[in-house]
Design brief:
This protein is an alpha+beta fold and 471 residues long. It has four domains: 126 residues, Schlafen, AAA domain (Methyltransferase, Cobalt-precorrin-4 Transmethylase, Domain 2, 2-Layer Sandwich), CATH 3.30.950; 64 residues, no CATH class; 157 residues, Heat Shock Protein 90; 90 residues, Winged helix-like DNA-binding domain superfamily/Winged helix DNA-binding domain (Arc Repressor Mutant, subunit A, Orthogonal Bundle). The protein has 16 helices and 18 strands. The longest helix has 15 residues.
Amino acid sequence: MKPKELQNLLALGEGFTTEFKRSGTSNLGREICAFANASGGVILLGVSDKGEVVGVGDHNKLKSAVQATARSAEPPIAVELESIGEVLCITVPAQNSKPYSFGGKFFIREGASSQQMSRDEIREFFYKEGLIQFDESPCEKFSLKNDLTEEMWDLFCRRAKIPKDMAPVTALNNLHLLGPDGRMTHAGAWLLAGDIRKFNISADVACALFMGTDKVKILDRRGFHSDVYSMIDETVAWILSKINVEYIIKHVKREERPELPEEALREAVVNALAHRDYRSTANVQVYIFKDRVEIVSPGGLPAGMTEADLGIKSIPRNPLLFAMLYRMEAVEHIGSGIKRIRSLCREYNVAAPCLEVSDHWFTVSFPRPGEQKNKTTTITEPERQPGTKLGLSRDQVEVMRNCLNASAIGELMAVLGRTNRTKFRDRVLTPLLNAGLVEMTIPDKPRSSKQQYQLTPIGRQILSQQDQDQT
């Protein structure tokens, strides 16, 4: 440091990265520790609180004492010492082994002073630095007895590929979703939640469709608050239902092309839910405007990542949750997030999304293609087969007639005298759903016990044409 640089520091006064100390090493350990736990700083020995140079003597002896103080921290802190006239300059570079303690206590820089951290502040510091993973911590609100329902466990087993004969506690222990004390981790609670808000009040997803390019007029609003895996499917389905989709029905099959690539949207939603900060009081937000689709996640970038790293490397904020989503095949490629989204958009011939990063938010904004007409449906009459109309089997036509009023799958099977639910679903019902002729009354919960099926407007048109052909 040159004398001129010292004068500049003195002129600026004490601050977040600068501390003045008149003499000696009293309380010096806490100052060095506080700077090490922050972004580094400079301590000037031989300067009064008012910025006046009073000087210190025997710099060599003082340097040894300072080095001994820095080395007695846990872990030892590297410092740089330099004499500038009568002032001894102690530089604490940014450190890589946070957190640091001195005398068994943790200190942090707050404004122009160093303060001892409370237990909650230490915990928050550890989370911020990525030294404690919140998703691995115990969820006090989750009760294995009351919250782990048989229905949710069966669904989780299918998703996570857990053998049917394995006891829940055994499986959860092996997957590290139960902590050493037998309590459910937050990751486990989020994946097994009937309503995730019971365990994290703001862990849900809020969606809104706006008329123009700002948030003045809302056309539609939806919220999803089941388990994380289900929220991914529900959120993507909602987005697809609100953006433009071109599709052609031909041979009782529907070819769809949303204006934005579905897999890129899904990847962005997965990232938002997998990497968000679940300690935040904000939720994941999805906004659809006339010109863009925004997916906003609370928490900013995880510790250890910078904007320059986006698309190059991945550091999960919730590694246990992320690993489970990978096991459940909600995540296709570990670490590919932003890179894969960009690649999917390029292959789909649409603009790559814009990324906005701040300390507390991460936003992925997909530009929507230029002005388009609303959803367009082109119906081309399929080839006719003997005994059928418009390529539909007799059973499918009968099911469609019974879907003029909403009906449960059991009722539809009874009409045809079917007893094998899987075959009925695969050969009769699913093709009608895929063709857009029949729809679920509860699309957000496909496996709901209250699920029923009804004709879509296109289905009514096809059925009417079918009946006309028969007369």
